[in-house]
Amino acid sequence: MRASTLLALGAVTGLVTVAQADFFEDFDTDTSASWITLYSDANSANHEATFSWDYFNDNGAALGFKIPSAPHSVGGTTKGLRMRTNISAGLISGLSASPIGQAFTGNFVLTADVWLNYYGPGPAGASGTTQLASMGWGTAGTVAQTHQNNTVTRDSVFMSTTLDGGSSVDWRIHANDNRFTVANGLYYGAFNGSNYVAGVYPTADEVGNLNASNSYWSTAFPTINIPAALADNYPSQTGTTNPGSTGFQWREWKMVKNENTLTFFIDGTLIGTVDLSFCTVSSTPNLLVGMMDSNNGSAADPDGLNSMIVDNIRVVSGAENQHLTGTLALNDTSGTFAFARNISYEVKQGTLTVASGSVVATTPNSSFDISMPPAVTGAATISWDGSSFLKRNTLVSLTGSSQNVGTVNVQNGDVDGSAEVDAADIDAVIAAFGQMNDQNEDVDVSGEVDAADIDVVIANFGGMDD
């Protein structure tokens, strides 16, 4: 275990800041003696936590999953912590693991690379699974922090999500012995005594809000193909994922504690925000990672593929960066993109660029999360530009705290990037008519340059960059 020795990257998008890591674990060596693993039932054979498990290569009796090196691994290493639960007993069960002797009492940002795996083929596998992966904070590290633990009171706040997006409740946040569920009206919250806590989850859709099929989750996490290499050792690993689920791809899980608020993100998408004044945690609050099963059945999993793999856990103390979040609306495009569109952004104060990056859009409406240090304050301009879209400027006032800037609409039709939608753009689309390549002339991103693209350019004729 390496603590207070490595540098941590503060932001994946936007301006990158550097801070000292207070805790870092890459699992490249067997550090199981430095962690405590706890189970919700006495049958330890029903659970498994394997430290320094090689998720790509041969592991003796078990073949590697052919999972590529995690994004934040140094030197292409492929070892992590692999967790499994409800292996054989058919119980509502789970396990959690915490590093021994750690307590995170102030403000911090925790990030980790997480891969969720399940028995294929996708999207639902041979029989589906009700298993969930989790991450949280607050525990003393003496009791398993799982979906159900009938013997003791849990002492943490943790987020969890199903492996395959096939449950009726795929997104969950627990606080102590309560799961945040539906409150009165159009909000979700946790029942605490006689009060509901509104606004824990990021949307106010009361019907199906926490199911993977809900538009909030399915837009943030569109379906992906299960990587072909995974079938090399396990032929069942084919197909696609459920929209709104996060399996078969490395994801950055992030947990941010700012004063009395704990916030969870996956790949920059807000999962939930918890008011800690409604929660009871340990006086030595530790982090936790875990798996659990919310059903007492055992899904078909002959090769042990249902698992959570964690790599590169990093905790950095101090104030969290401020985030500018919102939705980028790429107008006059098809509902499902045939190709991704990269829209770059720059946040500028005068001539000084304080953050930059890009949004990789796969749908007409894509969320964005721009991060920068809290010390950057004052008037600023976000400039958006890319593909066949005109440049647009969004004026913001940086306060040092995170804020939602709403929906940014960008106008389509500038095929040649001249800063104006004009006759040259119409000519370019006509010249490419019938082509099915990834190109700007396919302005609606339908996968083919056709009459609909000509109509879009004509409708936006005369439009100019901001």
The span between the termini is 51 Å
Strand content: 35-45%
Alpha-carbon Rg, integer? 23 Å
Q: How would you name the oligomeric state of the polypeptide chains in this document?
A: single chain
Helix content: under 10%
CATH domain class name of the largest domain:
Mainly Beta
Shape verdict? globular
Alpha-beta content class = mainly beta
CATH-derived topology of the largest domain? Jelly Rolls
Structurally, the number of domains stands at 2
As residue ranges, the low-confidence spans are 1-20, 182-196
Structure description:
The chain is mostly beta strands and 466 residues long. It folds into two domains: 7-317, Jelly Rolls, CATH 2.60.120.560; 322-459, Sandwich (Immunoglobulin-like), CATH 2.60.40.4130. 5% of the residues lie in helices and 38% in strands. The chain is built from three helices and 28 strands. The strands form seven sheets. Strands 3, 5, 6, 8, 17, 18, 19 and 21 form an eight-stranded antiparallel beta sheet that branches. The chain has a seven-stranded antiparallel beta sheet with strand order 4-7-20-9-10-11-12, with no helix packed on it. Helix 2 packs antiparallel against helix 3 (451-459). The radius of gyration is 23 Å and the shape is globular. The termini are far apart. Mean pLDDT is 84; it is low at 1-20 and 182-196.
Task: Write a brief structural summary.
This protein has 466 residues and is mainly beta.
